[in-house]
Fold:
Amino acid sequence: MILVRHGETEGNVAKVLDTRVPGLPLTERGVAQAKSFGATLRTPPRRLFSSAALRARQTAGHVESVTGVSAEVLDGVYEVQVGELEGANSDAAHEMFQDVYRTWHLGRLDVRLPGGETGQEVLDRYLPELERLRQEFLIPGATAVGDILVVSHGAAMRLAGRAVGGVAPPFTTNNHLDNTETIELLPRYGGPDGRGEFRGWECVRWGRYTPPFEADIEPTADDPMG
Structure:
């Protein structure tokens, strides 16, 4: 399962907290990033999905144009909804978002962004989509091969990766995802032949890093939604 952050948007450039669907479009650079991402895939994905946000649909559309794999929309994988902070780009707004977001990664999923979501609400809509895709496409013994690619959003992706991939803070809060960077999850199954019961996900890539995801890895640039 490859979760990929959308390409650069006008909101990213302006440092705007842009989370409400449909949201802002890709920049020209974001379009180029999406096309480049699709062109550098070793093999086309087996299936291609995106969130309903415009930037994710556009990114998936450009991947589709390169790979020939039709893009489909998933309802639950849109960005963390920031509520009253929507459209803000001030240092104070970014700090408020980061303070709440970090508490989620530390286990306080009940904390709510003002007028927005709690961390638990994000996971309650996001993780069932991943589970449905796993059960449909990534079961042991399946004859079809290829990755399942989901174009999504940085903050939601990192929270999901924290929840299911065994990656812990401060790595998860310090290491943001650049546009079109990925979190890659491998389903693990029990039994001597690896075809037994599902035993959870293993995170095999987080942006530029592969395991082990150490706490002392240098933090990446601070992008609140990355």
